[in-house]
Amino acid sequence: MEIFIIMLVVLFALGAMDLLVGVANDAVNFTNSAVGSKAAKTKYIMAIAGVGIIIGALSAGGMMEIARKGIFHPDGFTLLQLMYIFLAVMLTDIILLDLYNTLGLPTSTTVSLVFELLGSALVLALLKEGSYDKAIQLINTASAFRIISGIVLSVVIAFTVGVIVQYIIRFIFTFDYEKKMKIYGGVFSGVALTGITFFIFIKGLKGAGFITSDIKAWVGDHNQMLILGSFLFWTALFQFFIIKNFAVLKAIVLVGTGALAMAFASNDLVNFIGVPIAGYNTFQIFSQSKDASLSGAALAGNIPPDNFLLLIAAIVMILTLYFSKKARTVTKTEVSLGSQEEAVELFSNANPIARSFIQMVVGVMDYIGRFIPEGVKTFVNTRFDVDAANKGYGSRRFEDAEAFDLLRASVNIMTASILIMVGTSMKLPLSTTFVTFMVAMGTSLSDRAWGKDNAVARVSGVLAVIGGWFLTAVIASLTAGFVVTLLFFGGVYSLLGIIPFAIYLLFVFKKVHVKREEEYAERLKELIQYKEHPEKAFEMIWGNVHSILQNVNDEMMDIIKYYETGKAGKLNHIHHRMNKILNAHNPAIQHIIELANKHFGEKDLIYIPYMTKSYTDVKYVIENIRKITHTAYEKIMTYHTGLSRKEAEDIEEIAKISREIIKQLSVSLPETLKNADKIKNLIKKAHSVREEISQSQIKRIKQKKSKVNASISYLIILDEFGDLIENLDNLLDNIKKMKNLINQLI
Questions:
Q1: What is the DSSP string of 84-132?
Q2: Where does CATH 1.20.58.220 sit in the chain?
């Protein structure tokens, strides 16, 4: 009895935690359109979503059966074994979803639940039966295949429909949609509200106990009449609102947000509390029989839901929406991937698949474009011209501008609602998460939010999210299977090791999340500075230069030390760090151009080449250090002889002078300019010393004091030091030429 009580307490504690991490992920499904378009203040958006969650949670009763008997046959397991399955599922779900939240990736909580149940039940059945043929008979494999097909269907259908619908709507309304709304707005609102209304009844309230079966049957028999009547009613009402200058698009977005929240709570609540409730039902059966070896057949029957528990779960979900920072991180991912405005790209490191995909699409579009008359192309382009709008993004402050407009937000919600409604009525296994995300990506593509400058990064982000969905199934199954194995052999005592480890992982994820948020905040700050504060942006640009030079200088002495002592592993680590520095530096020139485009007059443009050249010089300096590191690493890995004492002394001397030059360049700009003559003298000395060392090395080779093969890398490194010094000299010259602009802006 005590063991069951302990497991039940742990289950409910885990259920509460799962609500926190799960809602943080699924919040993106129903808040991203309202948040991204700034349809209202965040607190009002959350309040509307909260109302939808409460109504939906009280309608979730019918879905609770999934955890008890939807994936496996409970009569094939004992009560104790069922508790092991439920514990394994909850432990896995918390870790998996919190990992996705930390990375800011939306995933399907339905997929995670189903495959955790599948993985843990299958592994336990194998341990119990000792035969795969017998074990598989205890599993409802149809559900797993249904979910997998749902992933593919959701991704393809939602993205395609999102692209087509948004293209048509934007072509009709353009970005200057306020004028067109007076003509076509009533019809658009009628379609949107009709879709959302039926979405509420068919998807959101299908399990509601307060809607009788007679009402549901009547609605099913009169669908066409209700759809037509609803369309005419909403069209007339919203056309009246448009005439009275009411913000009808905001109303559509906010009503749709409540509808999606309702459907989420109604259908996906089972993913978080269905398992603890199933555990509670198991405990009730055990309390009556006092026999842990009893079959779980009783769980296969109909067990009415506890509305009080559902209401408590809804309250926890609402509080999570308000206070979870990770919920905002997941929302930020989808909003940034679809942002019409220039935004901080969260997936700047593009993968090869994304690059190949974009190249293929651009090639196909260029080919098709040859057969389209120029007049037609010009006309179509005017329909998608962002700057033509009365409130174009180009004239607005970045901090205040929405990621996309209310028209696209309305299309997102309308399309997702109708697709989910149609899919549900046709019994297609469409996932709410997959549909809402892919519709949003499709509409952003039609709106040309994915331009040539950011398309690769955004496609990389979409591929990362989609890949994560498929990984969810694999990771969930394997992890839950591993945990249930520990519980099977270790019993409840294995929890003493599993739970502390899970808590440790959550702590690690929190640290990673805090670091990612800090990096995002810094990148956002930079973007705002470039757009709004040229003098601060200029200071930031050169501050970054100095920071990079200081980092490079710190690495220099270690490179020489490890080169002399033959520590290849240390050199390899430095090489990787230099790659990271170089990747961080690459967007810098783009920022300079953005700064110039936003704030510089024509008379200032003559200074831009000096700014870009300076940044290019810094890039070359980084590459010089990287090549020196790589050459030293390869020399050691090919087991060439080490450096002689004189060779070591010579290489240390040129490195010392180079470090001093970098040090003088990495101080504040006024100090750098003040010490320009001193730096020039150091550069001349460095060139002279490098030449002397090269000549000395050639002499050592002739005198048989150094071997030819071993000297090749030595001479290459000396040449790289020569290029390094030359690039530092160019950097100083370009900084001096910038003096006039510095005086104007700082």
A1: HHHHHHHHHHHHHHHHHHHHT----HHHHHHHHHHHHHHHHHHHHHS-H
A2: 533-745
| Residue 37 contacts residue 406 (beta carbons within 8 Å) | yes
Q: Quickly list DSSP for 20-64.
A: HHHHHHHHHHHHHHHHHHT-S-HHHHHHHHHHHHHHHHTT-GGGG
Give tens-digit pLDDT for 329-354. 666 666 666 566 655 455 555 566 66
Helices (H) and strands (E) in the chain, counts: 29, 0
Q: What's the rounded Cα separation, in Å, for the pair 323 and 20?
A: 10
Tokens describing residue 630: 């790589």
- Residues sharing a CB contact under 8 Å with residue 718, sequence separation 6 or more, in sequence order: 651, 654, 690, 693, 694, 697
Q: What is the pLDDT of residues 586-631, one digit of tens each?
A: 666 555 655 555 555 555 555 566 667 777 788 888 888 888 888 8
Q: Cα(240)–Cα(253) distance, rounded to whole angstroms?
A: 18
- Coil vs helix vs strand at 667: coil
CA–CA distances in Å: residue 389 to residues 169, 176, 449, 532, 535: 15, 4, 15, 22, 30
Hey, what CATH class is 533-745 in?
Answer: mainly alpha
Model confidence, pTM: 0.66
Q: Report the distance separating Cα 28 and Cα 41, nearest Å.
A: 16
Give the pair of three-digit tokens for residue 354: 């994304």
Mutual angle of helices 2-37 and 42-57, in 10-degree steps: 140
Does residue 534 contact residue 741 with C-beta atoms inside 8 Å?
A: no
